[in-house]
Write a structure and sequence with these properties.
The complex is a heterodimer of chains A (294) and B (252). Chain A has 294 residues and is mainly alpha-helical. Chain A has one domain: ABC transporter involved in vitamin B12 uptake, BtuC. Chain A is built from 12 helices and 2 strands, in the order ααααβαααααβααα. A two-stranded antiparallel ribbon of chain A has the order 1-2. Chain A is globular and about 65 Å long. Chain B is an alpha/beta fold and 252 residues long. Chain B has one domain (2-110, 119-249): 3-Layer(aba) Sandwich (Rossmann fold), CATH 3.40.50. Chain B is 34% helix and 24% strand. Chain B has helices at 45-53, 75-78, 99-107, 124-132, 151-164, 181-198, 209-215, 233-238, 241-249, and strands at residues 2-11, 19-29, 34-39, 60-65, 68-69, 82-85, 169-173, 202-205, 218-223, 226-231. A 6-stranded mixed beta sheet of chain B has the order 6-7-8-3-9-10, sandwiched between helices. Chain B has a 4-stranded antiparallel beta sheet with strand order 2-1-4-5, covered by helices on one side. In chain B, α3 (99-107) packs parallel to α5 (151-164) and α5 runs parallel beside α6. The chains are: A mainly alpha (294), B alpha/beta (252). At the A-B interface, α7 and α8 of A face α2 and α3 of B.
């Protein structure tokens, strides 16, 4: 693998780590299968791209986070106030966002930021080096990780974790579990959209159809990472998300270099996630079969 | 302390499954009262507790807690004043969080959840002192995840969490029924100690007549959504378990 490919893969991995933290909040902390991710990721891309197009790349990143948070809140409202099942709530929001994303991009299906100012171009102008972009990605990922880690150690963060763990107990402890779900889903999708926003400026491109499968990517990253670090403590889980996202990018790059077509990626990801989740069950099944034979 | 008047709850009204769960229940608990509620399955005991806790909405009636009208208050809001224990030991604690984190959560009951640190180092000695009361050695296992504890240990922890910030009312819904007899006795002893220390008004559902006679100072017997018999302290002292059992059977 050439050095430039290596750096590029690492950069992408760190950007996807930001998104994976969002998926981690809904799937692991809140224990809610939130499918709106595929929509909010593009909401982030679109918001960030349209701001960059009009000359405000930094504001674009911030707004991606904010708008993504609003979209996540919608999923939360559907779940808690309208009592729609979590999976359907996510699908509804994801589906509705398709139109909204299109409108955010100014009624076009894609935006090119070729020769426009982005956060990455500003950084390379200031510090011209082969590693500048990598460092920007790294700094962003570390900031997200550190702030999220600190947040989860606060009272509010602990209520959030408890809501995913035992909702009845949370309500009996005088905590508004609906508000916690709303907060959690908003934060989760804000992070997903932030990842999307950074990616759009990184690749200087946003496309309204790019969202499909991002959730699977996030899940795959988490699962790959947990294979290395487990999830015994919060810190290990966090390491798992970052390392998983990067490792997953490397797996993809290697697969591409081995001649796997880009179109096959999604199927491969699906197989990887399915296999990783059912692996413990398969092991148990094999053990039981051996027992029955003798 | 706690006063509820003419509580009515009907499940599935106007359908073929209509069932009157509470049919005009009134009672008043005084400071230091430990009231046991007895009755057959379906008598309305759990509905009574759930409607006081706010998980079941009343059709009509009135609930006053310390002169505060909580009849229509949301469940999580009144949980500020009410400690609760369920029959299922898994229900009262968060399994993937540590003992310390669970206690921290219980300790912030009634306070607004803020961005300040969840566990203050200065609170840990207090938590350890409280845990030591349970005599289970949990004070040395603060960083153990609660999911790794046994049912009895978890129920003991839940009990401590429910009373860590002294509630105005404690609701116990057969909280020892899922435990083995020896553990059930231990938990009941601890319950009694904690209640007596702070003089917490308590309403306990139980099917264990011995328990009811030994610990509580008053007895309520429910049948078909009504309180059919009230025994005060003196009457309770004179009645024996077999006489009470007869009273029970006479209901059918």
């Amino acid at each position: 693998m050439a050095l430039s490919t290596l750096i590029g893969t690492l950069e992408l991995g760190l950007i996807y780590a930001i998104m994976s933290f969002g998926v981690y909040i809904s799937f692991r902390i809140l224990d809610i299968p939130d499918l709106s991710v595929d929509g909010t990721f593009i909401t982030g891309c679109a918001t960030s791209a349209i701001f960059a197009l009009h000359g405000h790349p930094f504001l674009g990143i911030v707004m991606a986070f904010v708008v993504g948070g609003f979209a996540g809140m919608m999923t939360g409202v559907l779940q808690t106030k309208c009592k729609i099942q979590p999976i359907l709530s996510g699908i509804l929001v994801m589906s509705g966002l398709y139109t909204i994303n299109y409108k955010i991009m100014g009624n076009t299906p894609n935006i090119s930021l070729f020769d426009k100012s982005t956060i990455f171009r500003s950084a390379t102008d200031l510090f011209p080096s082969d590693y500048t972009i990598l460092i920007v990605c790294g700094v962003l990922a570390v900031i997200v990780m550190a702030l999220l880690y600190l947040f989860l150690k606060t009272q509010m963060g602990m209520c959030l974790r408890a809501t995913g763990d035992n909702e009845a107990m949370v309500r009996a402890s005088s905590i508004n579990s609906d508000a916690m779900k709303l907060l959690g889903l908003a934060l989760a999708n804000a992070l997903v959209a932030l990842g999307g926003g950074v990616l759009a400026q990184y690749q200087s491109f946003a496309d309204v159809n790019d969202g499909l499968g991002k959730l699977v990517v996030g899940l795959a990253s988490i699962i790959v990472g947990e294979a290395f670090f487990g999830r015994k403590t919060l810190f290990r889980s966090f390491m798992a998300v970052v390392v998983g996202a990067v490792a997953y990018r490397f797996l993809l790059t290697i697969a591409l270099q081995m001649g796997v077509a880009a179109i096959d990626q999604r199927l491969l990801s699906t197989i990887l996630v399915t296999f990783a989740i059912s692996f413990p069950l398969l092991q148990k099944y094999r053990r039981n079969r051996r027992k029955r034979r003798c | 302390m706690l006063k509820f008047t003419d509580l009515h709850v009907t499940f599935h009204p106007n359908t073929i499954n209509e069932r009157i769960a509470l049919d005009g229940v009134s009672y008043e608990l005084k400071q230091g009262d430990f009231v046991s509620v007895l009755g057959t399955n379906g008598a309305g005991k759990s509905t009574l507790l759930n409607s006081i806790a706010g998980t079941v909405e009343l059709d009509s009636g009135n609930i006053l807690l310390d002169d505060m009208d909580i009849t229509w208050m949301k469940e999580y809001k009144r949980a500020k004043y009410i400690g609760r224990l369920f029959q299922d030991p898994m229900k009262g604690t968060a399994p993937n969080m540590t003992i310390l984190e669970n206690l921290g959560l219980a300790y912030s009951r009634g306070k607004r959840s803020t961005l300040s640190k969840a566990i203050k180092k200065s609170d840990i000695p207090y938590f350890q002192k409280q845990l030591a009361k349970l005599q289970l050695g949990l004070e040395n296992r603060l960083d153990t995840k609660v999911g790794l504890l046994s049912g009895g240990q978890r129920q003991a922890l839940t009990l401590l969490m429910a009373t860590l910030v002294t509630p105005k009312l404690l609701l116990l819904d057969e909280h020892t029924a899922a435990l083995d007899p020896k553990t059930a006795d231990t938990i009941m002893e601890v319950t009694n100690t904690l209640i007596q220390e702070e003089q917490i008004p308590t309403l306990m559902i139980t099917h264990n007549i011995k328990q009811a006679l030994q610990y509580s100072n008053k007895l309520l017997i429910m049948n078909e959504g009504r309180i059919v018999r009230e025994l005060n302290q003196e009457e309770k002292k004179t009645i024996r378990a077999d006489a009470l059992l007869e009273l029970y059977h006479a209901l059918d």
